[in-house]
Amino acid sequence: MFENGLIAIIMASIGILFLVRILVYICQFLLIVLKDVKEMASIVWGDITGTEVKRENRQKIQERIGIVSGITKTDGPVAVTGSSGYIGSRVVEDLMGQGYQVHACVRDSSNEKKVDHLLNLNEQDLEGSVELFEGDLFKRGSYDEAFAGCAAVIHAGATVGFNRETPQEVYDGCFTENEHVIESVRKSGSVKRFVFTSSFAAVGHPRPEGYVFTEKDWCGDNVEGYKGAWTEENISKNRDIAYAMAKANTEKMIYKAAEEDGSFEAVSINPLHVIGPLMSENHNQFFSWQFWILQLLKGEDFGNWNERKLRGSTMLWNMVDVRDVARAHRLGTESPNAKNGSRYILSATDPSGEMFTWELQAKLKELFPEIESIGGEEMEDGRPKEKTYDSPRSYCSLAREELGLSTYSIEETLKGTGDSYKAINLL
Ligand SMILES: NC(=O)c1ccc[n+]([C@@H]2O[C@H](COP(=O)([O-])OP(=O)(O)OC[C@H]3O[C@@H](n4cnc5c(N)ncnc54)[C@H](OP(=O)(O)O)[C@@H]3O)[C@@H](O)[C@H]2O)c1
């Protein structure tokens, strides 16, 4: 009797232990599933759970659940709008260097000054190739042919308005006509990534000196700081407002379009003062940053041109190399870390790339000792006559971290800019 009781107690204990063990296994399993579901949800619908997924986990999970993110050269050609331009041309060159087939969109393929440097890339020892397609932002359906079968589109074309086009043309050429580009992307059915060349103008806004801008900033923040100028009515009157609003509105529009469509992701690149070697004489656009570097190298103070003062000479130059900007665009199409709505500031890597005009002048003197007179700003007793407002400070840290971008030193960039001006006989 006593023995039977003991056996029953032992059996019951074993049973309870067994049940507890099973319960522990079930809990562990549920925890793993819950974590996976949470991470998958944050990838599919954004970070709704409040937990940012670690990058390496993101890639693994994306591969596991088959979410398309980022392209490779085997996925198909990449189309580049604004290919004839300063940034667009370098994007084409970079893609070709990585073995891509590039559909270069230009307004006029018979304009040798704008396309010869692109066609010459086919003669160089690059793994990829380039083919020209005509397209105009103002014409609906203009990019249908160029985007057909493409895995990604890099949209670097825009009516930039280096003091030529009206503010309204700048706005329409960037925002209003972007609908045409997005329409062609949708029609293609093959585009997985759309990378838009936005601008730091969509980020920067009035802030105290020394404030460091990041991708979380938008030009429409701190509206009071604009003292009444930040209005829709000012689009047709003020070029800076038109440009900033166009870039910011375009960004918001493309992220929404991509989210609704579901077949492609939209990513933006937000460059600041882009300089670096020019690929053709046509890249010396009047009023561009590279144009002003040339004026300095020609001995004119910043803002002066042909004995006319076109702008103030004090400024904080926050410089990025055009080749880095180009590479960031390509990485924006490839990187699994980028997602719909990702934006990347392309500015100085660190404070070495941020210089007041008088500091830039000193650096150019160091890099080009053979040039007798280099322009800068007005000085008094070896010090700047006027104080410069210390803004915009910003670094391309997120692009380096998430996209894996490596950057040129500011010395390489400035030297490369001057040397390219010599090579095209403008200096
Ligand atoms: N450079 C900078 O410092 C900087 C900084 C921030 C952002 N960005 C942005 O970067 C992009 C490229 O600028 P960029 O410096 O390379 O300027 P760019 O050299 O003037 O290039 C602009 C390109 O857009 C094309 N384009 C203009 N209007 C067009 C239209 N109606 N239809 C089709 N194409 C048109 C031009 O073609 P054509 O050759 O036929 O004129 C050119 O290829 C722009 O979106 C600009 O806002 C530039």
Strand order of the largest sheet: 3-2-1-4-5-7-12
Low-confidence runs of at least 5 consecutive residues: 43-53
CATH superfamily of the largest domain: NAD(P)-binding Rossmann-like Domain
Q: Hetero groups bound?
A: NADP nicotinamide-adenine-dinucleotide phosphate
Write down the overall geometry. Answer: globular
How much of the polypeptide forms β-strand, as a percent range?
5-15%
Whole-number count of domains = 2
Give the fraction of residues assigned to helices. 40-55%
What structural category do the secondary elements indicate? alpha/beta
Oligomer state equals single chain
Estimate the mean pLDDT confidence. 91
Biggest β-sheet strands, sense, barrel: 7 strands, parallel
Instruction: Please provide the ordered H/E string of secondary-structure elements.
Output: HHEHEHEHEHHEEHEEHEEEHEEHEEEHH
Radius of gyration: 27 Å
End-to-end gap: 110 Å
CATH topology assignment of the largest domain: Rossmann fold
Instruction: Count every beta strand, where a strand is a DSSP E run of 2 or more residues.
Output: 16
**Number of helical stretches of at least 4 residues:** 13
Overall CATH architecture of the largest domain? 3-Layer(aba) Sandwich
By CATH reckoning, the class of the largest domain would read: Alpha Beta
